# Entry
Amino acid sequence: MFSSGDEAVIGAQSNSCNTTASLSPQQNNVLLIIRASAGCAAVVACAMAAILVLIRRLYKQFVYRLALYQVLSSLLFAALQVLQLVFLNYQKSPDVYRPWCLVVAFFHLCSMWTKLSLTVWVTFHLFCFAVVSKNFKRLEPLLYIVTSLLVPVPIGVVPFITKSYGLLESWCGIVGTKNGCPYFGGIMQQFFLWYVPALIVLFVESVMMIGMISTVACYARQDNISSSAKQAIKQMLPLVAYPITFFALIILPFATRVYGAAQLGPTNYGLLLVTAFCIPAYGLTTGVTLLLHVCVMTLSPRKVDFKYGTIDGDDMVTVRKNTIVSVSSNTKYVPRISDQ
# Structure
């Protein structure tokens, strides 16, 4: 039926596929536990940040709503990382877990694109505010909400059509192997449905961030800058952290995929361990950033001018929300000349 040459080729292909041994059950469990643990931390951080914004009613301010959208999308993304823990026993009952794996993989890809879309609009708003002095707040429902929810759906449907969703290493996503052999269709989708467009977008955002920070730095040096402008800059600048941290955390998972595609075999386990933490860290850093943003902007003491005079004394007067917290004993109130 086959010549000796054909048999040698088939045998070589078979051996090549067999060398792409999957991870051991113990390794799979470690990866899932790391990913789920980081996801739990992200859920807690995002939930605390969202609750703090709601309690203090900061959502009425557009800047904090932008941050809140980031946190809510990250909360969903982090919850999906925790849900991956269900697939610890996937290999024991694949027929039972496979349908749920497909659903989780779909929402996982959609949630990543939702977060990326919101990051794009945060960058867009910051750039327009700082560089061209335009505020597109009126476009909030269309840009920041509708597009971020609808754009990811057709992207997430593509792997359904190509039947590329499945168990990727120890979690569910777009698979790069099938039956122990490299699946080039899945590898291409991993790159072109997520990593390549995400890296391009985040690179463009980084360039925009450089332009924005340079403009703000020049503007802040001016002597005639108003106090309201200073306050607006202080509120806006923390938003820069969202695209920067997202870009930093996506580099290693991308490198892991490149390494696996180049090897045409199992990805380095050490890289997978770090990747298992970095991916849920998208949400963790978002929640922590907003918590710090709110605490710095709303909870820290700040100085204010008094309406009818100044405070003269050796020690600094500390106020919070225009209420004096502490005044030294030798401090006195000096009214303005016009009030005397």
Summary: The two ends are 112 Å apart (CA to CA). The first helix runs from residue 4 to 18. Residues 1-15, 301-340 have pLDDT under 50 and may be disordered.
